[in-house]
Amino acid sequence: MTTIESTVPPVPPGLRGVAVTTTGIGDVRGDEGFYHYRQYSAVDLARSRTFADVWHLVARGTLPGREAGARFAADVAARRALPDALAAALPVIAGACRDDLLAGLRTALSMLGPLRGMRPIWDAGPDRGADDALTVCAATPTVLAALHRLRAGLDPVPPRADLPAAANWLWMLTGDEPAPAHTRAVDAYLVSTLDHGFNASTFTARVVASTGADVASCVAAALGAFAGPLHGGAPDRALESLDAIDRDAGGSPERWVADRLAAGERIMGFGHAVYRGPDPRTALLREVAEQLGGPLPARAADVERRVAATLAELRPDRPLHANVEFYAGVVMAGCGIPRHMFTPTFATSRVVGWCAHVLEQAAQRRLIRPSATYVGPPAPQPVPDPS
Q1: pLDDT tens track for 321-370
Q2: Is residue 20 helix, strand or coil?
Q3: Can you name the residues that pair with 27 across neighbouring β-strands?
Q4: How far is it, in rounded angstroms, from Cα 277 to Cα 320?
């Protein structure tokens, strides 16, 4: 049977290069190897400001001074504790979602919304929407850390209001006072991954926000996109590549790359959908990893160099560079974060970016309702009689 295409103008697959709206939150300039939050380089912010300061920047539009930053951090810290009903439900959620903590987080946020009285954002107004966004972002690390510990048969560690975001995250995971070097490393990582243009999960959050839904629903939808292995689920896989080189290729990155390419597989930790040259986050996190010390950063740097050289030799028309996931795993492993918590750690940062986009989209008060190009059988045709 012949097919017919609709008259809707075609668009690039995956909406590559299509601007779907405007934003004042930040941008990724892939050809330049540069990205920014508001008017500041994201890498510069990661090197010089705290996660709470940058959270204030994307959520409220300005970098805070010392006193304003302290007030904002205290407001966030006061929202970390969970409602009693949600805390009581976490053991059941952990049991049902023990191998998928992001699914557990989605379930928990679906409870948090009504427990905190979150209403559709168009009805609630911008002030209430901003308040709900802070609550969701502050509660997310508490939920994920609790699910992690319950999964291991341990009691959750309550959040501490006296600790900044990175230190509190490490505290809730381990119950131990975090080392300052680990706190600094995780803080830099959280800042560097807070937002990154109109990636799949951010776009998903904005689509749901355009319907006027409550903040928790928008973030739960974003988490569904984020959970995919081509998006947020990559940091642990990239570190697994280092293991695979030793296990499957006798320690030879060159052989491992050649085998993967021959099998038509992706090289996890290399290449990016936007950057044509080096990922600017890679150099930052490489520095952070080297500051932590130990054998893993040196091993990763050697593998990065040799894999990049092999890819350039075997695929000279399509250069691939190490992306953020490659060194993200190295940094988190160096701070004692278990591999299954790499992507959840990423989520504790990116939720802040999602919420900034949710509020910005809601303020536009316009439903996102694109069209598709129809390529099925021509219509209308007679409906056949049943026989």
Answers
A1: 888 888 899 999 999 999 999 999 999 999 999 999 999 999 999 999 98
A2: coil
A3: 36
A4: 8
C-alpha pair distances (Å), 360 with each of 14, 53, 59, 243, 348: 23, 19, 9, 42, 20
- For residue 47, count other CB atoms closer than 10 A to its CB: 14
Q: Read out DSSP for 104-121?
A: HHHHHHHHHHHHTT---H
From 56, 148, 196, 272, the catalytic residue:
272
The whole-number pLDDT of residue 1 equals 46
Cβ-based neighbour number of residue 28 at 10 Å: 20
Residue 272 annotated in active site: yes
In angstroms, the Cα distances linking 127 to 84, 115, 117 are 25, 19, 14
pLDDT higher at 45 or 272? 45
| Residue tagged active-site, from 148, 182, 304, 325 | 325
* Helix pair angle (342-364, 165-174), 10° resolution: 140
For the full predicted model, state whether its pTM sits above 0.90: yes
- Indicate the DSSP class of residue 158: P
| Dist. CA 33–CA 229, nearest whole Å | 23
| Number of Cβ atoms within 10 Å of the Cβ of 297 | 22
Instruction: Establish whether 325 is a catalytic residue.
Output: yes
| Mean pLDDT computed over 137-150 | 98
Bridge partners (DSSP) listed for residue 10: none
Q: What is the DSSP string of 269-319?
A: TB--SS-SS--HHHHHHHHHHHHH-SHHHHHHHHHHHHHHHHHHHH-TTS-
Q: Judge whether residue 234 has pLDDT over 70.
A: no
Residue 245 reports pLDDT greater than 80: yes
Residue 228 pLDDT grade (very low, low, confident, very high; cuts 50, 70, 90)? confident
Residue 32: how many other CB atoms lie within 10 Å: 11
Look at residue 4 in the predicted model and tell me its pLDDT: 47
**DSSP codes joined into one string, 328-376:** HHHHHHHTT--GGGHHHHHHHHHHHHHHHHHHHHHHH-----------S
Query: What would the pLDDT profile of 113-130 be if each residue is shown by its tens digit?
Result: 999 999 999 888 899 999
- Retrieve residue 66's tokens: 């010392």
What confidence tens digit (pLDDT) does each residue in 275-310 have? 877 889 999 999 999 999 999 999 999 999 999 999
Q: Are 237 and 141 in contact, with CB atoms under 8 Å apart?
A: no
DSSP code string of 195-235: --SS-HHHHHHHHHHTTT--HHHHHHHHHHHHTSTTTTT-H
